[in-house]
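New to this. Help decode both lines:
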Amino acid sequence: MSKAKKQKNANKHRALSAQQTIPYIAMHPDGICQLPGGLYTKTLEYEDINYAVAFTEDQTAIISGWSACLNYFDSSLPFQLSFVNRRSRNANRYKVNIPAQEDDFNSIRGEYVEMLKGQIAKSNNGIERYKYITFGLPAEGVAEARPRLGRVEADVMGNLKRLGVQSRPLDGRDRLAVLHGQMHPGGREPFRFAWKDIPKTGMGTKDYIAPDSFDFRQSRTFRVGQMWGAASYLQIMASELSDKLLAEILELDAELTVTMHIQTVDQLKAIKTIKGKISDIGRMKAEEQKKAVRAGYDMEILPPDLITFSKDAAELLSDLQSRNERMFLLTFTVVNLAPTRQRLENDVFTVSGIAQKYNCALRRLDWQQEQGFVSSLVLGYNGIEIQRGMTRYCRQ
């Protein structure tokens, strides 16, 4: 798409108010959110587990459990993983999960927990880190969606609990508070909202969470209130995506949101698609070999990219057929926020450097900054049509 056409499309879909930018139709008190297209979503907040310092056998068990969590979502149940680093003036939300045991060492555990809390308070530079999983399903109305979402919520929480991960569902006010935090970066604006105020004031839920203004007139940056922002997507060139990539990005002293929109592909459709790709690669090989014969050199010499694609496709097909893998379509975005444009560019450059370490590239969304930002909100809404097919397997 040409630059002029991208700009024309961006202007065509530009919202007339900050409230119109926020892409949901209704937020209900029980936490169910209605999105365009008849999609209804719910959100869980979950905590960390100590994967990096676990023993090898424990890491294997964690990976197996996480794979089971991902495999739970079928093609009718898209989900979103959100990792929100938010700067706060009162960063006192520290949780260290070392449960008491039936022995004589609980006092030592308590002392160790307090020590860890103190170290976290000194090292986070006012950055609070939150993790959410949002899942949605199509329905004719909220009455139809409510029991189905309730069952999914219970299943997902059960799967996380088996991993040793603490989680909790967010009600409507909790979800609005999360959205308010994302749209008021810097932690300067307190969130004030009560459901009883809506009939008194005549205001909608969006009025309580919208910032003073959005500015999406520039192609590669945007403004939310007084803050500068940039939305980018991760171009994954590696055949395997390391989990260390995400860990390093989230450890930065920067205000950002990393979002993964994930759509499971029907298993039969995925296998058929990969077989089609293998057939295409086979035809390309045959064409290259014909060229080699005509040019008079060894027909076994093939372009390196073609060899790599052939190997990756064969391994993916094997994973789908014999390792109980599922194929996912992944949209991986990063939204950086900073008080100045120079600080913003520095933060984006730092994230880009981390991505390059793992054979990926961070690409700025051109004339799609608004779509990138709203897709990073913890709603389950994805307005970015950039997807990468992957399985649940990641290199450790």
